[in-house]
């Protein structure tokens, strides 16, 4: 490629095929590490070599275009050099346009910040390519303001998209901002809401920084958004992307040490002003917080020693219990109902039989809404009370549900436990009667007045038997 036959037309499509083939097989760093510095030197002052370089990349087949384009973007030291080497390739080739405006920005997030600056700076350097820059910004904002993308994409990708948005904003002109001001405002409002709703502090802070940057761009004269968040190296790096770094032309023949020294010398000029602007802010915040804390110390607390806890009355009817268990949002009333349900069922057997199957169904599917001590035991005792009050229909319902679909193993074990406990209770009716009616007056034999019960009890019993005995004679 360093020699062109004098006066003869030549085709470099073969060289393009070789370049694409080498890059697609994973050797793009080796070949472009030598080719790009050489092309940078040749195209610096020779327009013929610029056209040759453009033609070299344009003739790469589409199936290899992605590897070649990514290699050029990664190897070039700046957007102006990339523009000189690729020309308007992104406008002419659809595959290159897809890679540079869609795949690198929206589908991948492993590239460095320098790669994003090269790519988006390349789109901003020519009037034909600026339309693609604005289109890329719109698609980035659409992804950034999507609640689904915020919930399901990793934090690294969201940080990558935020960096791309800030770099795009740094390249916009006043006329372009004016033309899409309303769209920027809409995306900002939707995006900051999605980010603030996130449970991750990193995502919320990214939303705050990007929203502040968009607000500063569209409201240059009026008030802008301002959030309170921790200023660290990551936040300062993101904000520094809004300021364009002046392009510097690296000389290929220089050693790597000299090139790094020049690059390091160019950056502090831009970043110094940003550091100064950020160092004064935390001091003011600390002073404000101190004054707020001092003012809170002067407040006198209320005397709450006489306060009494308000007790919630439990329902007194079975149907009221059903309404509370199925639709009430009052957790205190719901808890009181659970605690009182067993005794209420045993005291009102007739009312329970009217809704026994419905109540059994509710208790079978009942879940713990609040943290109640002994909730499982309370629910089980209420189920046993219902089945012992109305055994036949409730037992039929529970046994039919045991083999039904959509029941967990825990619910099936609950059904078996309730049936076993209810059967045990029904098999001991005398003891149940004694425990249930222990306070009722016991029947006793009425003695005749004036008689001695210790001596005449046999006579009294015989007289009663005789009076109630009927005899038949033939």
From TrEMBL:
Report the subcellular localization: Cytoplasm
Record key words, sorted: Cytoplasm
Q: Which domain of life is it from?
A: Eukaryota
**What is one process in the GO biological process aspect for this record?**
'de novo' cotranslational protein folding
Q: Which GO terms describe its cellular component?
A: cytosol
Pfam families in UniProt: TELO2_ARM, Telomere_reg-2
Q: Which GO terms describe its molecular function?
A: Hsp90 protein binding; telomeric DNA binding
Which SUPFAM superfamilies does its entry note?
A: ARM repeat
Q: Tell me the ranges covered by the TELO2 ARM repeat domain, including all copies.
A: 129-224
- Which positions fall inside the Telomere length regulation protein conserved domain? 315-423
Q: Which family does it belong to?
A: Belongs to the TEL2 family.
Q: What is this protein called?
A: Telomere length regulation protein TEL2 homolog
